[in-house]
Amino acid sequence: MKSNSNLSVEYLLKIGRKEVFHKSLILFILLIIFGIILSKMSGLHLIIVILSILVPFIVSSFYYKMKRVKWLAWSCSNVMDIHRFHRLANNENLIIRKATKLEKYFLSENEKLQLDHFEKSLSYGKEKFIDDPSLSDSIEIYYDNRLITFWLLFITTILVFSINQIFIRSKIDLLNLELIIFVLLSILCIYFIINLIIKLSDHSPQLILSSKGITCRNETYMWKDILNYGVILTGGSRLKQHRFLINTKSNHQLISLFFLKVNIVKLKNQLFIYKNRKSK
Fold it and tell me: Are the CB atoms for 278 and 212 separated by under 8 Å?
């Protein structure tokens, strides 16, 4: 990657996606394929199988972290608007926190200086607001009917399988543990199906963004009344999901974005523009 102080933020992010996300994913897939081949060649030896599962995650995760800090150090010497770059890179999870000592260990002295200078510069000044004329006065965000339909069919399939297992096992033993598990699973499936049908029949916008404020769950909050807002990640390491947070003096909203037809990166940028557009 060559050094050029005139590169645009958008170009740097494009390079970041390619160098960090795409190459890490390719490495992970190749290691998984190699692991499957090695496992078969070893006759599914337990240790080989375990290593074939663990190694792709560990190696690709390490590569991802090293590549990200390497890309960030390179970007620091090529970007003019560091505050805008930092915000947009944050939106795409290319920057999550300050680089650790271990991550910096693989950088050259010049790259370390560039990175340190970038991190210190963030505390001075602020991003110059540039409006996006292509963004309308307001946008409405609805449920993603295709995604909901997919999950509805998937859970219905599980329900049919579960009910079939209940009939088979009820003929053998009514106190069978597996029978109880399938009954509980069926009840859970029915709950989710009802919930998804309600969502599928709801044609009203779930979020409305504008330069005046934010409307969610039929309540409108003006920008002047909003204390805190944004897109956050909640849940454990395996069950993370994006939620929309909005806080006012009198209310607190936390809405799941999983079933909404929305691009998380674009949503973060739209929120920034509408918030700053109102104060112009």
Answer: yes
The answer to whether 90 and 132 are in contact (CB under 8 A) is no
Contact in structure between 122 and 81 (CB atoms under 8 Å): no
Listed in sequence order, the residues at least 6 apart from 202 whose beta carbon sits closer than 8 Å to its beta carbon are: 143
- Residue 229 to residue 82: CA distance in whole angstroms: 23
Token duo for residue 202: 């709801």
Sheet with 241-248, strands from edge to edge, namely 226-234, 241-248, 252-256
Q: Are the beta carbons of 257 and 242 closer than 8 angstroms? A: yes
pLDDT (average), residues 48-58: 82
State yes or no: pLDDT of 238 exceeds 60: no
Residues 165-200: tens digit of each pLDDT = 888 877 766 667 778 888 899 999 999 999 999 999
The DSSP element (H or E) to which 227 belongs, if any, is strand 226-234
